[in-house]
């Protein structure tokens, strides 16, 4: 039995340790707006019709309503709404964007959610004066879904197409932003944009959570070797992303919950992959598992069916820019003049049969985003093994999730 003074001293020591732990935990996770580079001197006004200065981040607030599931826009409707988009890319014309942002969406059999998300993303990103490109990485085959691997492939393939990308946003297809003030930019931190998801009652499940939607600069993505490739099935690849950033002294930041609001479009939930928590304990072997583990033999990009010239008999929307017209001509192996003639001879879209609507949608899809279908079975047959002596303790594990 401790004496009264001893109990007092013990209580004071525990109180001090608790305060230190709380201070240490909060010092890593920052609730803040992104630190924008070159914030001084930004100006959206062109000089002599030319982009002379950096774009100011536009935080204009737009009311974004929850969509009705059965009323997801078609690709034809999206083309009409965003006529200046081509190959999934857009940039402001009145000023020079200070970042080139790649939106990477891991995907499998979520067509409805994708069309809902595209309508929301193109709207918000253009309002924010973001120079962006949208990439959808579609996993083919019957292997369990591997979100981390798809995002690593997305980083690799997007940089092949545009080496000037400086910022990556990793975006789940079922999360729709509700606040246009949530800036899709990168700063020096791991930026957790989805700080308030409705299915979590607009709170994060735990302090180190970095799931759903995150942004990270290209330099930091390379520094942490991207995502892990070894999580087949749902769960924990986003936790390892946060842990990799933690050991590399990259802060975790997120906007206030009223800014980082997202609506989760309902779908059948997947179960957590077997053994994922145990895999997570070996995260310090990240230099052996990530971007560096990928090469041209790790996966195969599958070329999709190219429409024939007969598709030109179908009506096309009239509001297409030069880039979109060129893209269509290349896809159809025909001339821009032939595409223009098909548009000139268009009929009302409401007169289309459902089959012909689908054909037109498939034709227009590459204008709204870059679709990359991949076969990941090669890397599935060669599992990644972590480096030796990299296993974390269960005490660290419990602290990471805030359970002690």
Automatic annotation (TrEMBL):
It is an enzyme of class 2 (transferase). Keywords: Glycoprotein, Glycosyltransferase, Membrane, Signal-anchor, Transferase, Transmembrane, Transmembrane helix. It is a single-pass type II membrane protein. Its EC number is 2.4.1.-. One of its GO terms (cellular component) is Golgi apparatus. It is found in: Membrane. GO terms for biological process: carbohydrate metabolic process; glycosphingolipid biosynthetic process. Pathway: Protein modification; protein glycosylation. GO terms for molecular function: galactosyltransferase activity; N-acetyl-beta-glucosaminyl-derivative 4-beta-N-acetylgalactosaminyltransferase activity. Pfam families: Glyco_transf_7C (PF02709), Glyco_transf_7N (PF13733). Gene3D superfamilies: Spore Coat Polysaccharide Biosynthesis Protein SpsA, Chain A. The keyword Transcription regulation does not apply. Catalyses the transfer of galactose onto proteins or lipids. Belongs to the glycosyltransferase 7 family. This is Beta-1,4-galactosyltransferase. It comes from Opisthorchis viverrini (Southeast Asian liver fluke).
């Amino acid at each position: 039995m401790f004496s009264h003074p001893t109990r007092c001293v013990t209580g004071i020591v525990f109180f001090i340790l608790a305060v230190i732990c709380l201070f240490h935990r909060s010092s890593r996770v920052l609730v803040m707006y992104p630190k924008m580079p070159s914030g001084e001197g930004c100006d959206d006004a062109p000089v002599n019709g030319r982009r002379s200065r950096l774009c100011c981040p536009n935080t204009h607030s737009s009311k974004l309503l929850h969509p009705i599931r059965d009323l997801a826009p078609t690709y034809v409707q999206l083309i009409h709404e965003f006529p200046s988009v081509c190959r999934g890319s857009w940039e402001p014309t009145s000023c020079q964007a200070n970042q080139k942002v790649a939106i990477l969406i891991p995907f499998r059999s979520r067509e409805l959610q994708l069309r809902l998300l595209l309508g929301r993303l193109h709207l918000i990103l253009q309002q924010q004066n973001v120079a962006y490109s949208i990439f959808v990485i579609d996993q083919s085959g019957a292997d369990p879904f591997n979100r981390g691997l798809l995002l690593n492939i997305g980083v690799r393939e997007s940089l092949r197409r545009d080496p000037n990308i400086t910022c990556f946003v990793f975006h789940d297809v079922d999360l729709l932003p509700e606040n246009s003030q949530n800036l899709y930019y990168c700063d020096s931190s791991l930026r957790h944009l989805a700080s308030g998801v409705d299915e979590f009652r607009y709170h994060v499940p735990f302090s180190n959570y970095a799931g759903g939607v995150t942004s990270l600069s290209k330099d930091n993505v390379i520094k942490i070797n991207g995502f892990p490739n070894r999580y087949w099935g749902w769960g924990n690849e986003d936790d390892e992303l946060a842990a990799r950033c933690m050991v590399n002294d990259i802060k975790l930041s997120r906007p206030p919950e009223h800014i980082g609001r997202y609506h989760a479009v309902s779908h059948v939930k997947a179960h957590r992959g077997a053994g994922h928590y145990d895999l997570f304990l070996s995260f310090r072997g990240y230099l052996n598992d990530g971007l560096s583990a990928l090469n041209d033999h790790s996966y195969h990009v599958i070329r999709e069916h190219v429409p024939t010239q007969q598709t030109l008999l179908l009506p096309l929307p009239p509001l297409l820019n030069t880039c979109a017209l060129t893209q269509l001509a290349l896809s159809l192996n025909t001339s821009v003049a032939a595409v223009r003639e098909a548009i000139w001879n268009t009929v009302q879209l409401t007169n289309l049969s459902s089959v012909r609507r689908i054909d037109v949608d498939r034709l227009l899809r590459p204008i709204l985003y870059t679709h990359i279908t991949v076969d990941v079975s090669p890397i599935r047959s060669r599992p990644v093994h972590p480096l030796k002596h990299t296993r974390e303790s269960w005490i660290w594990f419990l602290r990471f999730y805030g359970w002690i």
